[in-house]
Amino acid sequence: MATTDLTAQTFEKTVLDNDIVLVDFWASWCGPCRQFAPVYDAASQDEGNDGIVFGKVDTEAEQALAGAANITSIPTLMAFKEGVLVFAQPGALPQSALQDVIKQVKDLDMAPIKEQLAQEAAEKGGPTA
Questions:
Q1: What is the pTM of this model?
Q2: Looking at residues 82-92, what average pLDDT do you find?
Q3: Residue among 26, 12, 9, 110 at smallest CA distance from 75
Q4: N or C: which end of the chain has fewer CB within 10 A?
Q5: For residue 66, what is the domain's CATH number?
Q6: 29 lies in which domain range?
Q7: pLDDT of 129
Q8: pLDDT for 37-58, tens place per residue?
Q9: Could you tell me which of 18, 6, 14 has the C-alpha nearest to residue 65?
Q10: 28 and 60 Cβ atoms separated by less than 8 Å
């Protein structure tokens, strides 16, 4: 599966409608972004990663989205599982580190995380997950 360009209009739906979504926040002028791009693209083509959405957000074209995601350094990789942000880290990862992140996200048990989110929401008087 190839990478998918995400915009302010498609970001939330993509994250909520897919089990695992990785998002690379990048810009064309960014050297480390250009270094990370082939690593990220190769991971998106890996058959072992079928079912994972590999999204890309051009921070120049999507400045409001990058701001809403609190992006202060690029590239930044974010991972969402079942609609919950479970990983965010700036910097260009080598292939082995990216594969390690993907494995950890795949293996992550979301039940205790969702339970904690529901408890926090209940304490704040908000809706539960």
A1: 0.91
A2: 96
A3: 26
A4: N
A5: 3.40.30.10
A6: 4-124
A7: 52
A8: 999 999 999 988 989 999 999 9
A9: 6
A10: yes
